[in-house]
Automatic annotation (TrEMBL):
Gene3D superfamilies per UniProt: HUPs
UniProt name for this protein: Phosphopantetheine adenylyltransferase
HAMAP family cross-referenced by the UniProt entry: PPAT_bact
Function: Reversibly transfers an adenylyl group from ATP to 4'-phosphopantetheine, yielding dephospho-CoA (dPCoA) and pyrophosphate.
Compartment annotation: Cytoplasm
Top-level EC class: transferase
Binding site for substrate: T14, K46, L78, R92
C-alpha cells in the first residue's frame, strides 16, 4: 500500500444519529491521517430514522471543528466508496467485546473486496462506550433526554423527528 493511500481514512456508518462516541473517535483519529472521510451510508435496509441528507448535515455540524474531516453521504458498496476516494484505511469503532465478532467479519469481507485497504479499530473513551445510535433513537423516541449522548443539534433534530411522526 502506498504512503499516500494510508494518509486517507474512511470512517463509515449510518450515523443514525451521530453520537458523542462517534465524535470522540473522530477526535482521536483525525490527527492520525491527512484526511478523514466520515462516510454516511444511506443503508435503506436498516430503515434509518433520519433521512440521509439530515444525517450528513448533523454529522457535518458535529465535526465542523476538524479541518481535515469531511462528511460525505453515499449509497452503495463501501468497497467502491473507499476505492473511489483513494483511501487506504477503514476506521471502525469497537465499544465492547460483543462488537468484535461482527466487526471482524466485516473486516475480513472488506479485506477480500479491497485487499489494499487496512481496517483500524479504535475504542471510544470509557464515558462513551455504552452509547449506541439505536439506544439514543429509542430513548429519544420515547421522550427521554438524550442531550448527554449527542451534540445539541442532534438532540433537537431527534425531538423534531418524533414530533413530526406523532403529528
Amino acid at each position: 500500500m502506498s504512503v499516500a493511500r494510508t494518509r486517507i481514512a474512511v470512517y463509515p456508518g449510518t450515523f443514525d444519529p451521530v453520537t458523542n462516541g462517534h465524535v470522540d473517535l473522530v477526535d482521536r483519529a483525525s490527527p492520525l491521517f491527512e484526511r478523514l472521510v466520515v462516510g454516511v451510508a444511506e443503508s435503506p435496509g436498516k430503515g434509518p430514522a433520519l433521512p440521509l441528507a439530515l444525517r450528513v448535515e448533523l454529522a457535518r455540524g458535529a465535526l465542523s471543528a476538524y479541518g481535515n474531516v469531511e462528511v460525505i453521504g453515499f449509497d452503495g458498496l463501501l468497497a467502491h466508496f473507499v476505492r473511489d476516494l483513494g483511501a487506504g484505511v477503514l476506521l471502525r469503532g469497537l465499544r465492547a467485546v460483543s462488537d468484535f465478532e461482527y466487526e471482524f467479519q466485516l473486516a475480513s469481507m472488506n479485506r477480500h473486496l479491497i485487499p489494499d485497504v487496512e481496517t483500524l479499530f479504535l475504542t471510544p473513551a470509557e464515558e462513551y462506550g455504552f452509547i449506541s445510535s439505536s439506544l439514543v433513537r429509542e430513548i429519544s423516541r420515547l421522550g427521554g433526554d438524550v442531550s448527554a449522548f449527542v451534540p445539541p443539534a442532534v438532540a433537537q433534530a431527534l425531538q423534531a423527528q418524533w414530533q413530526r411522526n406523532v403529528a
